[in-house]
Specification:
The chain contains seven helices and no strands. By secondary structure, the protein is an all-alpha fold. About 30% of the residues are buried.
Length: about 150
């Protein structure tokens, strides 16, 4: 369960966030990764480096307002920070010793989804995803309308 629960949490996050329509989904994820970047500020145990990481994570999240790739990169940065805290710092949840370890398993699940464009599996199942056949015809109609 030590390994499975964090991965399931990542999948639940992805499925839940997939319910938010675009472009709000991307922007909400950018804000979320910024918050994750500040998660250790109140006692991560790495002193001034906590502020440096938070500044970098904030900049990456800002870039993520317009790019899923930056958001995915932010989650991978947070994964690395989780590993550092698991090995040398304090856990993300003070009373849960392995919480940073769990976060380091959860975050890459979210990162992979973000790096894939943050697409909704719900839309794909309905055939309205921009990469499915029905989605392509919708995009063609939209682009034709814009050109006219």
């Amino acid at each position: 369960m030590r390994y499975l629960a964090p991965i399931l949490i990542g999948l639940v996050y992805v499925l839940s966030m997939s319910l938010v329509p675009e472009p709000h989904r991307r922007r909400l994820n950018a804000v979320t990764v910024a918050g994750a970047g500040a998660a250790y500020l109140s006692g991560g145990g790495l002193g001034g480096w906590e502020f440096v990481f938070t500044a970098v994570a904030t900049w990456v999240a800002y870039k993520g307002l317009d790019s899923w790739a930056w958001i995915g990169g932010g989650w991978l940065l947070h994964t690395a920070w989780d590993v550092v805290h698991h090995l040398k710092g304090h856990p993300i949840i003070p009373f849960a010793h392995d919480s940073s370890f769990g976060c380091a398993l959860c975050d890459p699940v979210i990162a992979v989804w973000c790096l894939g464009g943050g697409r909704s599996p719900w839309e794909r199942l309905r055939g309205t995803d921009e990469f499915s056949g029905a989605g392509r015809s919708v995009l063609r109609r939209r682009s034709a309308t814009v050109k006219e």
